[in-house]
Amino acid sequence: MTYASFIILIPLLPLVSFLLLGFIGKKLPGSTSGMIGVLSLLVSAFLSVFTAYQYFFIDGKVNGVYQSIIPIDYQGLTFTETLSINMGVMLDPVSVMMLVVVTFVSLMVHIFSLGYMKGEDRYSTYFSHLSLFTFSMLGLVMSTNIFQIYMFWELVGVSSYLLIGYYFNKPSAVAASKKAFIVTRFADLGFLIGILILGTGTGSLDFVTIIDKLSGPATPELTGMITTSFLGVSILTWALTLVFIGGAGKSAMFPLHIWLPDAMEGPTPVSALIHAATMVVAGVFLVARLFPVFVNDPAAMEIVTWVGVTSAVIAAFIACTQTDIKRVLAYSTMSQIGYMMFALGISGIAPDNSTGYIGSLFHLFTHAFFKSLLFLGAGAVIHMIHSNEMTDMGGLKKYMPVTHLSFLVACLAISGIPPFAGFFSKEEILLGAYHSNMAVFVLALITSGITAFYMFRLYFSIFFNKEAHLHDHHGEGTLSMKLPLIVLGILTVVVGFVPFASFVTPTGIPAHGHLHLMFSITPVLLALAGIGIAYMLYYRENNRPQKISVSLGVFYRAAYRKFYIDEIYTFITTRILFNVVGKAAAWFDRTIVDGFMNVTGYTTILFSELTRGIQSGKVQQYAIYFIGSIITLAVYFIYFYK
């Protein structure tokens, strides 16, 4: 069976679901629209797993190397013999892995939403938008060229805007959706400029061609882009940095992360899909897709590294102070994606130096399962107590046994406790950092301990801390809500044992994972210390957390206010852009532009007033003008013309 015979169905089924539910969803009875969305994703997920089996175990490897396969390629707009915008499907280890992640997590979210969203007024609209997002994300990861990925990149942005603003009657949700859309649009402008530079420099938009021309030994295109500079920086560095800005915006990296916490205004299952496993890792996927090119530019790799490290550290400190459980998970996501980013930045492409690359994508893979589990678990808690605030929670262990156990498993995984999935992928990243950059390693190690602290702060605050006083207790949720928690909990335990390095490497050549038990002692001890501190502070209700927050003073207040980054943006936009630039631009528009147009208009009116008498419509007047002109011409030619 050829890939072309079924691969296109993977993205098309969610598209069909979107169109069907968008047009007739409101006419369908009960939960029918939800079941249509679930069935479409069930088939897509099955086909994705089958594709992964076919690719990794049957015919994806040739002479010991996994190949890039393009089963579908439709030629589109052609500019030159080599430069065109095609639409196609590309399969390689990274895209096949992403197919499994996107479809499976989306399936779990669809199933969970059957119960969570039951009774909502716009039930069918929700599933329609969810299907649109899944289609967009699948199109993104299967793209054969960088412009195709940009089209789906923008479609992902539109889909997230619709889902974040699902509760459009809430002003906070409307503001959050606009904020996410606008911030990522600014980042995407950089991405588009980077695309144009790469296309101009290589004469192609295809990933395979771009990578061949910019990763080979001193190719003319690579030499030209390195030796040509603008403002003292090579064109290649400009192109890759601008492309990375697009990825940083989508992945909520510092300083373009400000939209992510506000995006929690959307339904919680949306956060599990968009803000844990799919859209926010698009930036990591983009850097990994162009990794052979990034490796050839040390300056761009340094930017990727330090943006990732900064994001991981800042987000970890902020997460320690937040009380909205979804915002804690949002900053946790930002921190973990920072891990993935800096792991790519410190990695090489050679088999003995690619630990960071393998660890980054392995963490992307494991993180998708345990972070979506955390968000869905948070959704179950919110569904039960109707609040996002930790202060309204506590003592829920006996009321929510399935949620409690699955949430505990996910917290252990993200903290890097063996044998859960996060331990294996995070250790790979830390090992790569240890061998590449000691400063990055130390910061990453500290961040891993902080991660364990704030995650178990969240866990103890929800399920222990104090006695629960529940009124209108309606149980833990429907089977459709508990089943995804159980499935994701099991996967969080087992996926760490997948020999990931045997499938996904920067060269396509299978490698061996790097796990050294002696090296792992320090990170695990730090994680256990973080858990222990969280236990002492939050297992039972006490005033120690308040005392510590007061003693930390300015630093705690700064972290609680998210280091005033939102306020800085507000100051720049309102005080500088609007008041200074905006007022100057408004004066120029009113005085110069409008003034020029007004003068032009008045001049036209004056001229018309002076000449309107000529066109009187009176024959006698026209005869006088005619005779006068004849006499004037006659006098001129008789007496003056020589």
Structure, described:
The protein is globular and about 115 Å long. A hairpin with a 2-residue loop joins strand 5 (229-230) and strand 6 (233-234). The strands form three sheets. It has a two-stranded antiparallel sheet with strand order 1-2. A two-stranded antiparallel ribbon has the order 3-4. The longest helix has 47 residues, at 565-611. It has 25 helices and six strands. The relative contact order is 0.07. By secondary structure, the chain is mainly alpha-helical. It has helices at residues 9-24, 32-59, 93-116, 123-141, 146-164, 171-202, 207-215, 220-227, 235-250, 259-262, 268-274, 282-289, 291-294, 298-319, 325-345, 355-385, 401-414, 421-436, 438-463, 479-494, 517-538, 544-552, 554-560, 565-611, 619-640; strands at 61-62, 65-66, 69-78, 84-91, 229-230, 233-234. Helix 16 packs antiparallel against helix 20. The chain starts with 8 loop residues before the first helix and ends with a helix.
